[in-house]
Structure formats: structure tokens, C-alpha cells
Amino acid sequence: MADEARSKAMAVSVDNQARDRRVSVRDLAKKARLVLFAIGFSDGELSLVLTDDATIHALNRQWRGKDKPTDVLSFPQADFERTRVLGDVIISVETASRQAPRFGNDLSAELERLLVHGILHLVGHDHIHGGPQARKMKREEERLLRVLKAGARRRTHTG
Q1: I need a surface site. Which of 9, 15, 63, 75 has the fewest CB within 10 A?
Q2: Against a cut of 0.90, is the pTM above it?
Q3: pLDDT in tens, 113-156
Q4: CA-CA distance, 25 to 30, in Å (whole number)?
């Protein structure tokens, strides 16, 4: 409980453009704060945008030159030390919903996975070129998903 209370110092704004009733904005913001605290970011700001395939497709084409929708995009802020803004994580709820079964997830668990993945990109992790970097990111992603599961179990047993 103390970890959760301390993690609230990180401001997380969630823009639910997808307007999907299956998504709990409050729950995702809480999970983002837990992840950020677990990786050492207890002060600052993160923006999370939940959107559709058309919007993420346009962003993916504009910023990555890939003419297709994707599940998650991360846009780190250039000067975190000065601005205390970590950056933006943008998740396509449509893609998350479609691909969740492939990962053995329901929509909520898939959004958690993508949230963790996006935050790790913001703080400098990368998997694009494979190798040790990708393995390190995968291990950290698995660790953070365990942190979220432990937090969910604590809330279930205490609340």
C-alpha cells in the first residue's frame, strides 16, 4: 500500500479517445503510476492516449514511415530533467483487442502489456535490433507485469 501511495506523485493523464467502455481509465492511470514508480520515476508527468487504428496508423506513417496501424507508439520528451515530462504512450485499443487472444490475454491484460512496453520505450529500452537489448527489455517487461499482478492481488486482498 505504501508503494501505491508513493507512486501517486507521478502525474498520469489519460485521454480515452477510443471511448471503449471496457477500458477503465482510472485503473490504467493507477497501473502506469505503479510501473513508473517501479522503474524509479516518482516525479514528473506521463501522457497516455487510448485511440483507434486509424489514428495510430496515421501517427505510425508520419513518425516511423510505416503505412499500417500498430499496437503502441512511444514519444519520449526530449528534456525530462528540465520539463519533468516523460513523454506520450499511444495505444490502439482496436489492435489491442484483436491481438489479446494471441498473447493469451483479455483486453485489460493486453492494455497492461502495451502500457509497460510503451513506458519502457520512453525510458530508453529497445527491441528493434534484437540481441541483448531486446532480451533485457523483455526481462524488464516481464518483471513489471509481475509488479502489476502483485499490486492487483494486494488490492483484491485488502479492499
Answers
A1: 63
A2: no
A3: 999 999 999 988 887 777 888 899 999 999 999 999 887 666 55
A4: 9
Superfamily of domain 2-158: Metalloproteases ("zincins"), catalytic domain (3.40.390.30)
Given a contact cutoff of 8 angstroms between Cβ atoms, the answer to whether 49 and 23 are in contact is: no
Closest CA to 90 of 66, 120, 68, 118: 118
User: 5: exposed, middle or buried (C-beta count within 10 Å: 0-12, 13-18, 19+)?
Assistant: exposed
